[in-house]
Design brief:
This protein is mainly alpha-helical. The chain is built from 12 helices and no strands. The protein has a domain of about 210 residues: MetI-like (MetI-like fold).
Amino acid sequence: MGSYILRRLLIGIPVVWGVATIVFFLLRILPGDPAQLMLQSTGGNAAQIARLRHNLGLDQPILVQYGHYLVGALHGDLGISLRNNIPVTQEIRDQFPATLELTAAGMLIAVALGMTLGVVSAVWQHTWIDSLSTIVAMFGICAPSFWLGLLLIFFFSFRLGWFPATGTWGWAHLILPAVTLGTGAASVIARLVRSSMIETLGQDFVVVARAKGLSQSAVTLRHALKGALIPAVTLIGLQFGSLLGGAVIIETVFSRQGVGHLAVTAILAKDYTAVQGIVLFVAIAYVVVNLLVDLLYGFLDPRIRYS
């Protein structure tokens, strides 16, 4: 297994490098000067802007800047934030716990709701329960997350007063953002689990389990569900990465602290180093999550061997 993990990590290196390179050059193509934006409020003149560009290294050739960026990233140095002059790694370290909390809560809701809807739809396929589950899943897929978030704020915060509309403090502030973040992923998981469960319920080992006199719940949960989990686990891993990236929208809608909110602030200020560091961090997290998902296959299906 060690060689498999090493090989997967080596495969992930070009992916992370490609993402980092694309973001680096895209930021340089966008119009606007970070030094000018930083001095805009104080009315800096051309000489002050030029001096600041030199201090930030923005007057160097772009390939030189790119080389410094790669060397620093290889040593774990993501640079200094142009906005507040503190290390980007420190910014990410301070904000990531809030994003991880939101992503984990959204993933928990997505898995619980998606698995439930998928199993129920498969067991009672072609009934009104299946139709209702399909409608709910399609709504979750089609509804934009920002619109759903605003809708939840309107009803559960402004009208009913059950949950706070914004903020990052305590579990009460987490529920609405987590539901908003997890709904779309739950719908996708539900559709995949339904199709996978229907296929698994027709397999020979399920027929044998029924012939032994096992109850419907035992056949579904102990035999069919485990066989249907492998494709679902793949999707769950991909959805986790998507939720980590989707936190940008949710943290903005609900005014939550986190890496997503930090990324939006950095983009608006054209803080090159912060944006580069955040995207690189998310790309690495995505690769690691997918590796963990692949390793989970062996637990779900003992026939799988890593070589």
